[in-house]
Amino acid sequence: MNAQKLSKRLEMVASFVPTGAVVADIGSDHAYLPCYLIHKGIINKAIAGEVVKGPYDSAVRQVRAENLSDKITVRLADGLAAVQESDHVDTITIAGMGGPLIVSILENGKGALKSVTRLILQPNIHAKVIREWALEKGWAILDEEILDEDGKIYEVLVLQRGNMTLTEEEVLLGKFLLAKKSDVFIEKWKKEIENWERVLNSIEKAEPSPEIIAKREELHHLISLVKEALKA
C-alpha cells in the first residue's frame, strides 16, 4: 500500500469522499488516504491527524515526499483536536479502529463537528456501537459496505446529518448491509453465530447464576435474531 495504491478497505473509504470535500483523516498513519485523494483530484485540501509521534513523523515525511505540503496539513493531536475551525472541514474519515474508540473520538471532539456534513467510518469491530451513537446524536446512515481483505472482514459506514429509525436487527447487522446480503456479509454472521453457539455450549455446563442465565438468554436471542435475518 502507498499513496498511489490503497488497501481495499481504504479504497472503499475513499470512494465515499465527495468531490471537492475538505477532509480530516483522523489516525492517518502514513497519510496515504489524503495523499491518494489529492492525487486522484477528488479533493484539494486535507488535514491528517495523528496522536502518536511515530506515525505523525511518517505522515509528515510522506506528505513531503509526495510534494503535497501545501495541500495537506499534518497535526500531532488527540482525535478531533487536529481539526481547527479555520480548516472548514466538512468530511471526516476514521479508519482502522474499533467502533467504541471511533465513537469516543467523535464524542470527545464534538465541537469540531459543527461544519461537518459527512462521516466515513471504518470500524474493525463493533460497528453496532457507531449505529447506536448515530441514532442518538442526529446522524443518519447514508450507505454501508462490507468487504474481505486478507481474510479479515471490514465494514464501512457513511453518515450524514439527519434522523433515522432502525430496528434491533438493523442496528446489529446494518440496514444497508442487510438489504444487500452479500456473500461476505453472510460469511461474517454465520461465523458469529458459530462463536455464540460455542460460548453458549460452554456456559450451559456452568453453575447457574443470575449473570449466567442473563448471558444465556442474550445469546439465544442474538442467535435467533441473526438466523431469522439471514433467512429472510
UniProtKB/TrEMBL annotation:
Keywords annotated in UniProt: Methyltransferase, Transferase
Entry-linked Pfam families: TrmK (PF04816)
Q: Extract the GO molecular function terms from the UniProt entry.
A: tRNA (adenine(22)-N1)-methyltransferase activity
Task: Reply yes or no: does the keyword Transferase apply.
Answer: yes
* SUPFAM superfamilies named among the record's database cross-references: S-adenosyl-L-methionine-dependent methyltransferases (SSF53335)
The answer to whether UniProt assigns keyword Transferase to this entry is yes
Listed under GO biological process in this entry are: methylation
List, alphabetically, the PANTHER family matched: TRNA (ADENINE(22)-N(1))-METHYLTRANSFERASE
Protein name per Swiss-Prot or TrEMBL? tRNA (Adenine-N(1))-methyltransferase
Q: Which species is the source of this protein?
A: Lysinibacillus composti
